[in-house]
UniProtKB/TrEMBL annotation:
<dbReference type="InterPro" id="IPR023000">
    <property type="entry name" value="Shikimate_kinase_CS"/>
</dbReference>
<comment type="pathway">
    <text>Metabolic intermediate biosynthesis; chorismate biosynthesis; chorismate from D-erythrose 4-phosphate and phosphoenolpyruvate: step 5/7.</text>
</comment>
<protein>
    <recommendedName>
        <fullName>Shikimate kinase</fullName>
        <ecNumber>2.7.1.71</ecNumber>
    </recommendedName>
</protein>
<dbReference type="GO" id="GO:0009423">
    <property type="term" value="P:chorismate biosynthetic process"/>
</dbReference>
<dbReference type="InterPro" id="IPR027417">
    <property type="entry name" value="P-loop_NTPase"/>
</dbReference>
<keyword id="KW-0808">Transferase</keyword>
<keyword id="KW-0067">ATP-binding</keyword>
<comment type="subunit">
    <text>Monomer.</text>
</comment>
<keyword id="KW-0479">Metal-binding</keyword>
<feature type="binding site">
    <location>
        <position position="120"/>
    </location>
    <ligand>
        <name>ATP</name>
    </ligand>
</feature>
<keyword id="KW-0028">Amino-acid biosynthesis</keyword>
<dbReference type="Pfam" id="PF01202">
    <property type="entry name" value="SKI"/>
</dbReference>
<dbReference type="GO" id="GO:0000287">
    <property type="term" value="F:magnesium ion binding"/>
</dbReference>
<keyword id="KW-0547">Nucleotide-binding</keyword>
<feature type="binding site">
    <location>
        <position position="36"/>
    </location>
    <ligand>
        <name>substrate</name>
    </ligand>
</feature>
<feature type="binding site">
    <location>
        <begin position="14"/>
        <end position="19"/>
    </location>
    <ligand>
        <name>ATP</name>
    </ligand>
</feature>
<keyword id="KW-0057">Aromatic amino acid biosynthesis</keyword>
Amino acid sequence: MNSSDNIYLVGMPGAGKTTVGRQLARRLHRQFIDADHEIEVRAGVKIPVIFETEGEAGFREQETRVIADLAKQSNLIVATGGGAVLRPENCDAIKKSGLVVYLRVAPRILFDRTHHDANRPLLQVANPMMRIEELFTQRDPIYQDVADLVMTSGGGSVFHLVTQVERELRKRCAA
Ligand SMILES: Nc1ncnc2c1ncn2[C@@H]1O[C@H](COP(=O)(O)OP(=O)(O)OP(=O)(O)O)[C@@H](O)[C@H]1O
Ligand SMILES: O=C(O)C1=C[C@@H](O)[C@@H](O)[C@H](O)C1
Ligand SMILES: [Mg+2]
């Protein structure tokens, strides 16, 4: 990769894309953009409201527009939405414009991190653990396929994970 290419974090809800992305950006002196936040700013409402008013399909349209715009920029660290990889056009856009890092986390840990949070509409179901397992089964192969770098993380600290990701990225470019 070129040192100015974007770095995209992909992974399941609760994988740590926002948390890790923000800290990584500070270390690498890059701008951090959270695609979910960008969608909310443009829409003027929170993601659950977009799901309520326009459905998941409407949300995905907005997500694709945001990703296409971010892919035209450079030097960014982007936390993508958990489902961004579901559209092949989004995968193409991120692969062409940067390096893709998959934060791979087991469903049980994802559940522990997300089950108190109502901001993830797809997890507002009777059995969120089962939903997370279903989503993981569906998406894990897609995340692996799109990723240049897979970082499996478990019970370690955010600091440790950010350090590992930074080290791997520095190996790949003069970041
Ligand atoms: N490596 C880690 N160890 C422990 N807790 C973590 C780790 N990474 C993230 N967390 C915590 O897990 C929660 C979810 O993380 P975060 O919001 O960054 O995930 P996300 O991948 O951006 O999710 P979403 O796709 O829903 O936006 C946060 O409370 C965060 O502090
Ligand atoms: O996993 C998903 O499909 C989603 C994850 C979030 O980041 C948001 O992009 C939205 O809630 C959809
Ligand atoms: Mg996030």
